Amino acid sequence: MNQNRELFGEGKGTELNIREIVYKYLKNWKWFVLCIFISMALGYVYIQSQIPQYKVQIDILIKDNRGSAGDKDLLDQLNLNSSGKIIDNEIEILKSNTLMERVVSDLSLENSYYIQNRISKKVLYKNIGLKIEVLKESVYTFRQPWTFKYIDSTKAEFNGKIVPLNHPVETEAGLILITPDGVPTFNHIIYVNFGRVPNVAEGYIARLKIEAASKQSTVLIITLEDADVQRGKDVLNRLVDEYNQAAIEDKNLTSANQLNFLTERIKSIAIELNSVEKNVQDFKSANGITDLAATTSVPFQAAVQSNNEDVNRIKIQQVTLNNLENYLKAPDNAPVKLPAMLGVLDPTLLDLVKELGDAQIKKESLLRTIPETNPVISSINDEIKALKKSIFQTLQNLKAGIALTQQQLKAQGDEFQSVIKGVPSKERGLADIMREASVKNNLFTYLLQKREETALSLASTVADSRIIDKAKGSNFPFKPVKTSLYLTFLLLGLFIPFAVIAVKETLNIKVRNHGDIEKYTDATILADIVQTDDFDPLIVVSKPRSMIAEQVRALRSNLQYISPELDHKVLLFTSSISGEGKSFVSLNLGASLATTDKKVIILELDLRKPKLNVALGMDNSTGISNYLIGQVDYRDIIKPIPQQANYSIITSGPNPPNPAELLLNGRIEHLINELKKEYDYVLLDAPPVGLVTDAQILANFSDATLFMVRYNYTIKSQIRIIDELVQRQMFKNLNIIFNAVDAKAMSYGYGYGYGYGYYSEDSRSVKNPLLNIFGSKKR
């Protein structure tokens, strides 16, 4: 048995399975081509329908404002208490909704415009011709795109309705105002999508990507994906401008508070100075004094003036220190601003106040991007508390020193007053008024000087970032990636028919290849018979050069390998169910044997559904059933087959009611024995084994059994019947004939390489070119 399997190529199961699997797909190559064509066409439509996306980039440098390492303490040098820019924080600020909403508002990007072509959309930016503003929303404003078209300088068409320009008009989209803007687009219907600034800003933030050039670098590379290159450039340039402006506003917060304080104080001092000068004028007019310098000496006046200036500075320092003390005592959440340090010259206090101001600015900047519960905010709060404590201690010490200095100046002033008492009362009165005027004038001059210094500092503030490269964009879109998409659709076009065929094969319950047979039984597949469209029952006679005739001859030759030591004269043909071609194969095999000068007779033993007599058009009035009941002698019912010499048949005869009982009466065995003496081959066309027991009865009289399995007809589970018959040895030398195999499967799947053109009687011309593509269904 194993030698037979190896002889017919069935021992190479792996190679055979691979070929059969490949064939499953190769035979459907037309559907692969069609699916690929459709898929690539859909890919083309999909790509054309996508709005091209361009990548725009801008590079900025974040300056490190920490200064040199020599000016910092140990913690600064270890970067544990750094006040420099944290790149991650700056990235979050750049990606904040606040900045992006400013950009969207400044550039009027809340509404998007586009032109709808057949498949694709063309995004419009600037030079649209019209500008539409939503003055009052409706429930439909943001639900759909709206159409508008310019008509003339006074009116336009909005969503199919004629509306005036430059006048608010009520529409389905709400109350809108359409104004001309640039050169109108006359011949196009323009679509507009209304949007809210926060929503549009979030969309831009989602397409914004910011990353550092390297781990140690403070250069940020900002990229944006946008459908319009110029719009992307404008967005990035404006974003950086807004970022710089916000940074400048943070840095100028202290200076602005100081400038406001100085302005208010100058106004107050100016009023007081005007009052004092009016008093001087009135005193001189009332007392007839025109020259105070002639009444007092210059050195004395200078000493008095110097003492007055010192007293004035002390008062200013006291006011400043009192304001600072009130600020330190205020609650943390109180809306009190850090006071300006006017007149305070103590470097320690000034440094501490500056650090406190920087810490508060840093905290306010971080609170824009992170919550107050963040550990970074907690760390800054601890730092602010420590600074306030140090400032308070230094403040008390400084106030004590100022109080002592004030006492000394007061004593010195009293001495000057005692001297002045010796001056005549008019001159002394004028000196008092002039001294007060001098104090106010010096204070006014000092405040004016400080205001100018603060204003100059405010105007000279620069941002901590610098643009390295202005925003630039590519001329070619990076999305959609046509190569990748076409490859994806190509794979999809391959996958769909592949998956359909795979699922179809998985759900298939019928035998389609050798593997389906070998999976369930070890019986030898003796031959493959190709399917034919020809209805001639004796095709090996009518078309001896056809492929099927050659395969029947191959089957005839393979009979010698079933069991070479036996003389196989009686061959039983059966199958699992009706319609698997046992009658056709047995009839043509007998004809092929007869062509070798062998006497052959075929017995039509399917007494229930005989087919041979019908196919051959022979009289079936008497036959085997008559012989089995003893009505006729077997010689009287033997009929020659006219199409082939040396070939005879005994038809079934009338259908008996009890075929199985007739086969058991012993006359069939006698008939077969007698025929074996006269004929070289006796062929038994038996009924299917899966329906009746007739074939099993006849198996006792046969030398070999040829079991029919039909391609794409026999159920796989029925192959188990064959294996059971082999295991129970109910049939002698059981072999399988794989019948009605697809001709292409014979060429591709099993490697016999017969081909169509070799057998002239199989070749046919197909006039319809569509049949060349999709083939024709076999009958």
Describe this protein with a few key phrases:
alpha/beta; 779 residues; disordered C terminus; 8-stranded mixed β-sheet
Written overview of the protein:
The chain is an alpha/beta fold and 779 residues long. It folds into 4 domains: 2-50 and 490-507, no CATH class; 111-195, no CATH class; 253-464, no CATH class; 514-774, P-loop containing nucleotide triphosphate hydrolases (Rossmann fold, 3-Layer(aba) Sandwich). 49% of the residues lie in helices and 16% in strands. The strands form 4 sheets. An 8-stranded mixed beta sheet has the order 14-21-20-15-19-16-18-17, sandwiched between helices. It has a 6-stranded antiparallel beta sheet with strand order 3-2-10-5-6-7, with no helix packed on it. A 4-stranded antiparallel beta sheet has the order 11-12-1-13. The relative contact order is 0.10.
Any idea of the CATH topology of the largest domain? Rossmann fold
Integer tally of domains: 4
User: What is the CATH top level name of the largest domain?
Assistant: Alpha Beta
Number of helices: 27
| CATH H-level homologous superfamily name of the largest domain | P-loop containing nucleotide triphosphate hydrolases
Q: Name the shape in a single word.
A: rod-shaped
